[in-house]
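Predict structure. Chain length: 232.
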Amino acid sequence: MLGVIVNTIAVVVGSTVGLLFKKGIPERLSNAIMTGIALCTVYIGISGALKGENTIVLILSMVLGAISGTLLDIDGLLTRLGKALEKKFQKNGEQSGIAQAFVTASLLFCVGAMTIVGSLTAGLTGDNEMLFTKSVLDLISSSMLSVSLGIGVLFSAAFVFVFQGAIALGAGLLEGILTTAAINEIICAGSLMILGLGLNMLGITKIKVANYLPAILFAPLMLQLVSLIPGL
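Prediction complete.
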């Protein structure tokens, strides 16, 4: 869990630095930074999605993930949590955007390739090197993101800790099926969500990305199922 803790602290520190400098940055510059981050997010999503080797596995994972995530209303849960935080910090009834910032930052920091592989590696072997590297990147990106989105980015650190910690602790339970191919399919599904998040950040779509999170769990299971069917 050391890597998870360090990553969480990095998001807290980066967000705090961004918030301290937020008032001194013009809105047009803040918007430009946000657009740049969104474009990078789209690129990361596309490049990661190409790691998948079986389109059928991706389709099945995303469909099952969408069904279960929508029934559980994961997006709604995260949004309500963000709204609860927003009520505590908004001033004079104004919309502060904390909920949107919380959901966006939480997903951005948690469904990428480095999150998945780093947390799995830490849980299976105790090697935290990838999570340490991710911590440096998140330190920078959280500071930039908080300049544009505000304090909601800081609160996403709690989700980072819970999500990555759950993967690291649960890795041992899936050790038997977490082959390289399975991890690639997990990365593919997660990266597709990253792409959707990037499109949301650009204002092109309004995808409830969080509702697809269960696809990460379904990916290795679907790979096992498909491998039993000849020709697939």
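Summary: The chain has one domain: 2-227.
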